[in-house]
Structure formats: structure tokens, C-alpha cells
Protein: Outer envelope pore protein 16-4, chloroplastic
Organism: Citrus sinensis
Amino acid sequence: MEEELIDAVPCSSLAVDAILRIGTAGAIWGLCAGPQLARKRGLSGITRASFVAKSIGKYGFQCGLVAGVFSSTRCGIQRYRKQNDWVNALIAGAVTGAAIAAGTRRWTQVIGVAGIVSAFSAAADYSRTN
């Protein structure tokens, strides 16, 4: 039943679902972490409120971006290969890790983050299916 449902739903819909769910979780994380970081920096009043609001947006956007790249890549690979196994998560994790680290413009970090995210993604997918 799950295999038929995955084939029927477009990858863009799965990506939007992941962005909304994980982006919301990231925004909640920013809501929890923002006040603590503002207190450490000694902010108060309007600057503190502004910092917390920016933290909520930043964490929500970053988490949503990661979820969107991962889910759309995994779905596309799964449809291309016509197999639902851990290799899809491995490749999608590598692409997502490289996309995260691309802002640093240092190849050692891009390769390292891609490898770490890829390994964790494959391990999570393997443990989920077995």
C-alpha cells in the first residue's frame, strides 16, 4: 500500500510537506533557542525581540531548506531507480550535505558534510526499513 501511495504523490508535494513540517520544528527550535542566545549577548527590549524573531525565521528556513532538498532528491532518485532502499537516502543525504556546505566554498567542508549527512541518512533509512 505504501509503495502505491508514494508513486501516486508528486515529489513536489512530498517536498512541500517536509518543508512545512521540519520548517515548523525549526521555527519552534528558534523560539526556544533565541531568547537564550539573546540573553547571552546581553540584548534587551526591541533589539531582543528583533533578535528572537530573526532566530525563529533563520532556524525555520534552514531546517525547511534541508528537509526540502533531502525529500525531493530522495523522491526523485527513488522514482528514477524504481527501488525503495537505503541507497536513495545515501545519495539524497550526500546531495543535501553538499548543498548545506556549499556556502562555505571550501571543498574539504563540502565533502566532509556531504559524507556525514549521507551516512546518517542511510543509517536512519536502513534502521527504519529493517
About this structure: The CA atoms of residues 89 and 123 lie 9 Å apart. The chain has one domain: 11-105.
